[in-house]
Structures are given as C-alpha cells and as structure tokens.
Design a protein that fits this description.
Blueprint (H helix, E strand, L loop, with lengths): L1 E4 L5 H11 E2 L9 E2 L6 H8 L5 E6 L2 E10 H6 L6 H6 L6 E9 L8 H12 L4 E9 L4 H9 L3 E8 L3 E8 L5
Parallel strand pairs: 2-3, 6-7
Antiparallel strand pairs: 1-4, 4-5, 5-6, 7-9, 8-9
C-alpha cells in the first residue's frame, strides 16, 4: 500500500468513500461520518488543490482510504461555512492544521492504515498545532480517540453542534502541550 498526497483527479474516489461512510445520528452503526456535509465534487477538488495535508492510501492503484487536513489559511478560503466545528476551530490561535477526517474502507480497517496516515500528517506538520474533532455523542468513536491519544493528542474540550451532536476537540502541539 502507498500513501501519497491526494490529487484533484482523486476527488471522485474520495467522494464515493465519504458517501459510503456517512451515517445518520440514529444509525445502528457505531462508526462513520455522522451527518457529514458531503462536498460537491468541485468543492472537494478545491480542498485537494495545493493542499499538502490531504492524503490518500492506495492498494494496487485503488484508493482505499484518506486523511483530510487543512492549514488554517486554506480552511478560511474553502466552503466550510455550514460546518459548526470548523467555525469553532477557526477561533483558535493560528497557525494550525485542522485534521478533518480519516476514513478507511471497511475491508481495510483495523490494519494500521489510520495510524500510517496520522504518522504522515504529524511528520508533515511538525511545526504546527493540530486540532482534530472526534464524535463523542451519539456515537463515541473510541478507536479514533485511542489513535489520537496514542500520538500525544489531548482532549481540550467538548462542543455541542448540529442540534445535539457532541464532538471532542483534540489537540497536539502548541502552547501548553
């Protein structure tokens, strides 16, 4: 498997993975992107364009997962206006990296791929504070929490967004860590 920076032509495959992992707050599934606003393909291409912190992982040429993260200045320029978590994070001291999503296709989960993607992000952003939101309610994403904590992230707050969803905001680097 190969980790590489995502390219604009990867947008369609990434969008399909996002769609396949999007769940409602009432879902019986315990993990997934809880009511994540799916970007249009053009919005996704803008997120990929000139973004050194958006990675895909390929197996025999097929994208099987990705990690999306954004430097604060790029985050301000992108269409995240409806995203309550992003609006909250943009109030943080800058510069920073916002780790938005790590998504791995089901058949590739629990094989250390998330760890490899996160290692790459941390290596590439060693001079930045990194913030990452993880679902705490109604679905607590214990695997992602455990992964971030294993890399030295600390829970700094919980926020209530989108009419009742609760996300933990985790931080690595910066003042006080």
């Amino acid at each position: 498997m190969i980790i590489k920076n995502a390219k604009i032509e990867d947008a369609k495959a990434i969008k399909i993975i996002m769609f396949n992992h999007n769940i409602s707050r009432n879902s019986k599934k315990q993990t997934g992107l809880i009511e994540y606003h799916l970007p249009s393909e053009n919005e996704l291409k803008n997120r990929l364009k000139n973004n050194p912190f958006f990675y895909v992982i390929e197996d025999e040429g097929k994208i099987v997962g990705f990690l999306s993260a954004y430097k604060d200045d790029l985050l301000k320029k992108l269409n995240f206006s409806e995203d309550e978590i992003v609006r909250h994070i943009l109030k943080k001291q800058q510069p920073f990296i916002y780790g938005d999503l790590i998504v791995i296709e089901k058949e590739y989960q629990n094989k250390g791929i998330g760890k490899l993607l996160l290692e790459r992000l941390i290596k590439d952003s060693e001079n930045y504070t990194i913030y990452g939101p993880i679902s705490h309610y109604p679905h607590r994403n214990d695997l992602s929490i455990k992964l971030l904590i294993s890399f030295g992230f600390k829970l700094i707050e919980e926020i209530n967004v989108y009419n009742g969803l609760i996300f933990g905001i985790y931080k690595k680097g910066g003042v006080g860590t």
